[in-house]
Amino acid sequence: MGERITLAHGNGGKLMHELVDRLRIKFSNKILDEMSDAAELCVQKSKIAFSTDSYVVKPLFFPGGDIGKLAVFGTVNDISMKGARPLFISLSLIIEEGLGISLLDRIMTSVREASRRARVQVVTGDIKVVERASADKIFINTSGIGLIINTKRRIGSKAEKGDLIVINGKIAEHGMAVINAREKLGFISGIKSDCTNLNVQAERCIKASKRISVMRDLTRGGLATALCEIASFSNLGIELYEKNIPIKGNVRRMCDMLGFDPLYVANEGKFVCFVDKKDASKVKRGMGKSAAIIGEVVSSHKKEVYLKTVIDAGRILQMPVYDQLPRIC
Amino acid sequence: MGERITLAHGNGGKLMHELVDRLRIKFSNKILDEMSDAAELCVQKSKIAFSTDSYVVKPLFFPGGDIGKLAVFGTVNDISMKGARPLFISLSLIIEEGLGISLLDRIMTSVREASRRARVQVVTGDIKVVERASADKIFINTSGIGLIINTKRRIGSKAEKGDLIVINGKIAEHGMAVINAREKLGFISGIKSDCTNLNVQAERCIKASKRISVMRDLTRGGLATALCEIASFSNLGIELYEKNIPIKGNVRRMCDMLGFDPLYVANEGKFVCFVDKKDASKVKRGMGKSAAIIGEVVSSHKKEVYLKTVIDAGRILQMPVYDQLPRIC
Fold it and tell me: Which residues of B touch A16 (CB under 8 A)?
């Protein structure tokens, strides 16, 4: 690891994992060591999911969403992925001096709409203001609490051999929408962020099957990075079928033109379920019309994700090192 | 309210209260409307306190503490003030590209030491990296969960007529330590921040008396602002006895020289208990050797804090409008 923090330390890839691991070791405890996006806690007899995220997306508004919506749904989704029903969120703002209050109002209205839609209550908050050039307009932290839905099987971070991998829809839209807006690339692509709440879909999956081992939303680092993490943590291999991965034509074309691999591009409304073969079609139904079975957990390729390409060749997907897109969420 | 955010919107004073109120109305619900520093929640049968704060203190290190220690104790204290035992915290970092990793390590070591001391576990976290000049070195958000200690009486935000006000020690040290370090004023004052965890003291108070109505830590805005808030929320008056308010000579002298009113200067290890007369001396004992009874809740001066000065004159303490000290926490 270098001596200074680089943007790549925040991209969800290899350097970030090294940094996260450095911190994890420092604070090591049974709950944190699970390394999922939400912690699973017991308070008296209640099983609770607890999650936090700071949002620094640039620009603040982009087709399909804005920082406020992202901040609510991002945390709601992390909680949902633990098999929990999100209930409460906190809202902490770091504002750069000079921000227009009407802009702040627009963002807060968006937070309100999103929290209503996801059925969570904003119950506590904080505001800090820093001098000009000490922050970039506004950063939002949300933390959230959810109640873990009582199921026979705990949804964790480890997949099992033979699990099928189901995705709920088309990939890479959030990243491409943000980059188009930020760089003013002017693609008249109609590409919108997929930013949405996943709690309803996730709960439907949990009700459809008691055989789900892992649920994971595909944010920073995209589908590939999430699968690399799961393969590594589970000490198993993943085979991924490229032809089954849903993606819109215009998103693929924009990725091709800009040189991005859509497998690594961020989503904000996509997740995967790892589920026993027997229940895969039930879970696929629970995940909606655009859902698809895209891969399988195998005992070969240990800790690796093996992509079977459309031309029936294969390649190993690596954990990314450098940043495709900073400040995507 | 002006059209743009100013530093005064973050100082704990009048403009900030207007801004907070603007947001509160947007998200209005029974829990949020209590307007305390931690929310009181029910998850199944467990009563939980939930709090969040982002820390943007400048400089990162100051005599008596640093941003890491502050981030843990600040949130621990907000939870403790609800009569809860802090259990778990989250840790979310916004880092400016280029931050030295050894500096980050020092701060994280401080977070670890503080969390051990306060007996809370860091159970979930997040890292974001932004480009140079998009943040000032590092901002830390901590959110926390605590279990509300089962007591006969709920500790809330409303004081009662006849309550005495007990403080646990000397005021204005944190603010003066930070300003001395930040501005390199070079006062060889030996003034250190009072930054510490209050959960042990707070729990002792709760055990000592069932008649505590409000507990409040005295952070941004200092003693005066906290009391103004409580008087206003309780729809009662507060009489404060200047001669009883503990303050070190060198802190008072530094305040005098720089033109700060110590009543408005931030603390990070001080709190007040509002308690029925009968139990005031018991609570005072629970708050330690430096504790003092500094005032009383009265039915006159409604919503106001009336300071009886050492020369037996009186004045009303106002909610501050402009900023004495930005980025104090």
Answer: 127
